[in-house]
Amino acid sequence: MSYPEPRYLGERGQVSALFRPAPPEPDTGYISYVAKQEHTNGEFGLYKIDMGPKAKGAAEHFHRTISESFYVLSGEIRLYNGERWVTGGEGDFLYVPPGGLHAFQNDSDDPVSFLLLFTPGAPREEYFEKVAEYSQRSSEELKAFRIRHDQYNTTDMIDD
Fold first, then answer.
1. Is the per-residue pLDDT at 160 higher than 50?
2. pLDDT tens readout for residues 52-91
3. pLDDT tens-digit map of 122-146
């Protein structure tokens, strides 16, 4: 395996790093936007998720355009890797390429904290902020919302 083709062709480097201080509170109550795709020139999106005990999480789904990676910071989380459920603990990592089936939930009596990395970056913030609202709408509206955000739940595919 080799390095990708150069994307910066200058000789001396440039001042272009971005430092963002940690926000005082999670942005949506359970998700902190560590690095939105707009901050990384679309290369990736990085989010910190703090789930309470017995939290439902996401049902089995896949993405057509982005990969998703999970890195467990603390607690235990149930992760579906497309074949079976596994328990992830501190330091565990799950990579899901585009098209890979996956799901997650917190079955434990304790909170869990993990990082989600999407590559390339996608505007996932609207999905995180409005999925609960769309879950209260018709199944057609919810399905259209998911598809607009590259979220293909396998339960939606049954209706096709």
1. no
2. 999 999 999 999 999 999 999 999 999 999 999 999 999 9
3. 989 899 989 999 999 999 999 999 9
User: pTM for the whole thing?
Assistant: 0.88
Q: What are phi and psi of 136, to 5 degrees?
A: -90, -5
Residue 127 and residue 151 in contact, taking contact as beta carbons nearer than 8 Å:
yes
CA distance 152 to 144: 10
Show contacts of 69-72: CB within 8 Å, 24+ apart: 69/93, 69/94, 69/95, 69/96, 69/115, 69/116, 69/117, 69/118, 69/119, 70/94, 70/96, 70/104, 70/114, 70/115, 70/116, 71/114, 71/115, 71/117, 72/112, 72/113, 72/114
Q: Which CATH homologous superfamily contains domain 31-122? A: Jelly Rolls (2.60.120.10)
User: Would you list the domain boundaries of the chain?
Assistant: 31-122
Supply angle C-alpha 99, 103, 106, rounded to 5: 160
